Structures are given as structure tokens and as C-alpha cells.
Amino acid sequence: MNNSDINIVIVTGLSGSGRSTVLKMLEDIGFFCVDNLPVVLFDKFFELCTQTSGDMNKVAIGMDVRERDFLEKYPQTFSELREAGYNFELIFLECADDILIRRFSETRRTHPLSELGSVEECISLERKKLAGLKSLASKVIDTTNINVHQLKKEVKKYYAEFSTSHALQIDLLSFGFKNGVPTSADLVFDVRFMVNPYFIPELKPLTGLDERIQDFLFKDDVAAIEFIGKLLDFLQYLIPLYEKEGKKYLTVAIGCTGGQHRSVAVVKKLELLLKKDYNNLIVTHREFPYN
Question: CA-CA distances (angstroms) from residue 182 to 75, 228, 252?
Fold first, then answer.
């Protein structure tokens, strides 16, 4: 395999802006992904890629401020990659300060530069360190006003040519009506008619992913059981029609009041029932913390 046969994507950006999510999405569509590969190993790594039978012709490398040599040497590194004939591009993840601060608070993660000051100070310093990289990016993605689901969809669309699957992508999305209906939804179903586990003290702290919530909703509630059957029949009728018309993405949004119990449980149930026939599924629970 020649150098020109290898497609390299370097994913970088502000900590908390979604770099790990983008790497996971690229991995899902066939990229070989590595996080924070030391710059001194770049040459050897890409040399090994050219020696494979073709399984590593799509490579994504996540880089951040933890790899200090990268920040110092990236102009030389990028120049060498292009001179060597590799197909190379840089994706930069951006986000507003207040949203980054909230994400670090929600996930209780520490900032990579945390030893240098508060989260606010770390974000400001990181922006300065990465400013040069951002100016060289082939694509800048601002995640300030998009959730994980929307970020994944944008990345998949951008790299659609590399996807090994050409089937309709079905996005199953749970949400809470109290936070609004998702603008990305093609189909919206309201499951607030189901008995609400929120009012059961021992079930309230759980989510719809827990088997106890699943059992509570789908063991004895005739309406819930019948709804799942009818909804499955409806989707199995519609999906082939959407595929026939050439639709590439279908977002099925399931909503309850808070997006923690009933909608999550229904999405989980649908995932189990649909994945037997459709392997191109993405599941997102909008009201869960950003990850």
C-alpha cells in the first residue's frame, strides 16, 4: 500500500468539546483510531500502516494539550505528512467557555491543565495554546449548541464516503418534553401515557436502562406492551419505504416528561427489537450528561 492510499484525520480541539465522541464515531465507520499517539512515533506508525493489507488505510488520531511535543512540532509534522504523500486533514472541536465549564461540572472530570489553575483559567490557556492549530483546520465543529447525537450525525455525514455501510441510519433518541422537542426528529412519539416510575420511590433514582424500570413498564402494563408491538410494526413498515426513497438518516424520537425513565426504556426496547434487522443504529439519550 502506498502513502497516498492512507487517509489520515487528526482530531483535536478544546477539552470537553467532544473529541472522544468524534473519535468513537470515526471508529464506527471504519477508521483505525489512536488517542494521543506521541509525535515521535508518527513515522513508525504510518510506516506500519503502509505495510498492512489495507485494513488501516483510514486512520484517525486524537491529539490534545497532554501531548506537548505535538503542540511544539505540529507545523513540521503536518508538512512532513503532506510531503510524504499522505491524504491528511485536521478536524478542530470548538465550544463556548460557559458550556465547557458546565460539562466539566456535570461529568466531574478534571481539565488536562488542572494543575495550572481553575477550570476557567485552564480553558483560557488551552485556547491560546491551540489557536494556531485551529487556523489550520480543514473543518471546525462548534459543539456549543449541539448534543452528542447531533455531533455524531454531523461527523458521519462529513465522512459518509468512508462509511462501510450504505443502509439507512436509524437514530433512536429519547428526550424529555420539559426541555423541548428535538429539532432533528423525523418521527416523534409521546409515551407519557405510560405509568410513570418517577412516582415510585424505589424506582425514581433509576433510569430506563435499568432492568427494574424495564420490568415495571413491560411486564404487566398492557398499554405499554401493545404500544411497543404497534410501534415496531409501524417502523418496520416505514423504514423500507424511506430506504426506497433514498433517505440516509431517520431520527425516531421518543419523549416522556423528563427523559429519564419511560422514553429511555422504550428506546432500549426498540433497539433490542430492531437490531436484529438493522445494524446501522445509533442510540442517544438526550437528557443524560454529555460524554
Answer: 40, 21, 10
* Alpha-carbon distance values, 265 to 130, 177, 207 (Å): 41, 15, 8
Q: What is the CATH number of domain 3-162?
A: 3.40.50.300
Identify the burial level of 199 via C-beta atoms within 10 angstroms of its C-beta, where 0-12 means exposed, 13-18 middle and 19 or more buried: exposed
Q: What is the pLDDT of residues 217-270, one digit of tens each?
A: 998 778 889 999 999 999 999 998 888 777 778 899 999 999 999 999 999 999
What are the percentages of helix, strand and coil residues in the chain, rounded to 5?
A: 45, 20, 35
Say if residues 1 and 57 touch (Cβ distance below 8 Å). Answer: yes
End-to-end CA distance of the chain: 36
Residue 245 Cα distances to 54, 104, 127, 249, angstroms: 33, 42, 44, 11
H/E run at residue 187: strand 187-190
Dihedral through CA 39, CA 142, CA 21, CA 165, nearest 10?
Answer: -100
Residue reference for cell 426498540: 270
Which set of grid coordinates corresponds to residue 177?
Answer: 418534553
